[in-house]
Amino acid sequence: MGGSMPKQFLRLGGQPIILHSLRILQSSSVIDEIILAVPQSDMEYCLTKIVTPNHFTKVTKIVPGGPERQDSVRHALEEVHKDVDVVLVHDAVRPFLTEHMVEEVVNVARAKGAAIIALPMKDTVKQVGADHVIECTVERRPLWLAQTPQAFRRDWLLTAHRKAHGEGVHATDDAYLVEWCGHPVSVVEGSGENIKVTRPEDMIIAEAILASRVKGVRLQGEK
Q1: How far is CA 6 from CA 43, 49, 91, 95, 102, in A?
Q2: Domain with 105 in it: what CATH number?
Q3: Contact 140, 119 (CB under 8 A)
Q4: 144: which strand partners?
Q5: What is the pLDDT of residue 5?
Q6: Is 100 helix (H, G, I), strand (E, B) or coil?
Q7: What is the total count of domains within the chain?
Q8: By C-alpha distance, which of 25, 69, 62 is closest to 44?
Q9: 178: in domain
Q10: Backbone angles phi, psi at 172, to 5 degrees
């Protein structure tokens, strides 16, 4: 984003981005405990300015993140109690998950072992060479865009992360590591609103989505 503040603490609708995700996870009936992985220098801020004043009682631990997303997830996983069957991983900068998404992906993970929220590819996809010349048009029907939340059997995901860490394997999402270990991962169709805020222009889109949701709630209340 080009700023000094971590993206998850930027203001969306006047509140930190991470707060929007935490509110959904706190209210979800399928979530029992929340473990946050945040930069070590921001752990106190996260506790005193976000978790405590907003009464996020399901947040039981705040752990230091790592240099990469994968490290942060592994650090949090190591703190999950061994009796937990299913864990859910979510990006703090995806503020528009819904309780329905959480419930659906967790239920599928309970039944099949692993599941992710994803969207079918709608745009035409081109494979391009190093010279910026199109080599071919890729068939888009079997292609899906991975999102979070992603849910897994705890033992599958923990084993995958430990193995990847030991062998120096890096992935951009947790599903890849579970696939790499030979486990099937199911897909649950998500929403185009479930965006990841990574660039300045994403904040403009996020504010528009939030405004439309707030308006929808108000209209419902007026009926």
Answers
A1: 12, 15, 13, 14, 25
A2: 3.90.550.10
A3: no
A4: 120
A5: 76
A6: helix
A7: 1
A8: 62
A9: yes
A10: -90, -15
What DSSP state is assigned to residue 139?
P
Query: What single string gives the DSSP state of each residue in 163-176?
Result: HHHHHT---SSHHH
Q: 């506790």: which residue's tokens? A: 47
Side chain identity, residue 58: K
Tell me how far the alpha carbon of residue 140 is from its chain's centroid. Answer: 24
- List, for the chain, all residue ranges whose pLDDT scores fall below the cut of 50: none
Which token pair is 222? 């007026």
Residue 78 tokens read as 């190591």
Say which residue the tokens 């631990």 belong to: 61
Could you give the CA distance from residue 142 to residue 136 in angstroms, rounded to a whole number? 16
**Residue 181 belongs to some domain of the structure:** yes
Phi, psi of 117 (to 5 degrees): -80, 135
pLDDT at 113: 98
Strand partners, 87: 152
Residue-level pLDDT at 215: 72
Tokens of residue 155, six digits: 């033992």
β-strand pairing of 186-189 with 114-120: parallel
**Is residue 1 domain-resident?**
no
For the record, the structure tokens of 144 come out as 């899906």
Contact criterion met (CB below 8 Å) for 152 and 76: no
Tokens at 123, concatenated: 């745009």
> What would the two tokens of residue 213 be?
């949701």
Residue span of the structural domain in which 40 resides: 7-222
Residue 74 maps to a domain: yes
Looking up tokens 């990006």 gives 91
